[in-house]
Amino acid sequence: MNLALYLSLSLSVALFDLDVEEPNDNHFLQLELSHFQDVTILRPVIDESICTHCGICADLCEFNALAVLPSNVMVFNELCHGCGLCTLACPVKAIKEEKHGLGGIYVSSGSSLNLAFYEGILNVGEAIATPIIHEMKKIAFKEEREIIILDLPPGSACPVIKGLSQSDYVILVTEPTPAGEHDLEIAIEVVKELGIPFGIVNNRADVGNDCISQLAEKNGYTILLEIPHDTEILKLYSQGHALIGRNKRFDDIFANLWHEIRRRKIE
Amino acid sequence: MIIGIPSTGKALSSSFAQNFGRCPFFIIYDTDTQEIKMSYANDAQSAAGGAGIQASQSLINNKVEVVIVPQVGPNAWNVLKGANVRIFSGIRGSVQDNIIAFETGELTETSHADSSGRGRGGRGQGRGRF
Q1: Which ipTM value was assigned to this complex?
Q2: Which chain B residues are within 8 Å of A187, Cβ to Cβ?
């Protein structure tokens, strides 16, 4: 978010908050958002008067979202990814699909800034984030901006993979702790598998231990930036303020980061 | 009566598994013949999600009337109950110990699922798995 804000001082930027389970960029940006589109998926509805309870649908379902009992079929909506395989496979066509709202996409209104901002929100109670990320990336690819920044959720599960794919460069943000190192190693495996160049930002680099720098040295990974522990940063963060435009020291952090990324991309 | 029991192996001497949806094996025991009717590796053990549902489905497909479980989540509970399967709380020990306890009436029939949340999960726990 801060990088997007920094770059928007001189370039046209679009920022996508793809952390749809708990989007937080706009806590700091404080932009006026308006509804852009709903995201729905299709989920199966069983016509029990036609169903023969043969069990093929439950057997094929990759997500165990269906259970076929002797006299009825149970659909576990929260597990359904909306792939439609059950509907295709049903030999007696007892399954029809109904649209189900998953969440929505919101966009910053007006284009006063050099920054366009999109936020995805998964409805409370829903567990499948990837369709929203998918729709947001479709928008991202249509955006005619110089820089597109995708802010992804932490971890290395499906939403992260969905968000990362087709990116030109990945910035992995971590902390110098055993937990940070563990999660970073898994994330790096994913990024390598996707074949995307990446660099590491080591946040609060001067507290904790030196595991991240050792990991990078051992494997030849790039550390783009080390951000020192700074109570001023924490204070601004806790007050809901972005870092950019407050203190030259903070602007320089992101100037350095951008410089390092460009240098690597050009190489 | 046909009983399904989660276990760590395929024999009556195998330990009673402490996780229902992700147990290594299921043993299907017939109290009429006093023999194992079948035992099989639990495909749901490595499911990304819905392991309890998949495990329950396999037991229903194998016509169990009773299951003995360490504990069971709400989804598996609903599937088993939907097929009129009776659910009993097992004891630590072997599969044999549990069959004996069941036959002598020492096991309690459970009246509700054990957790209101998700299963005990493989990769599933926590955020962002789907």
Answers
A1: 0.81
A2: none
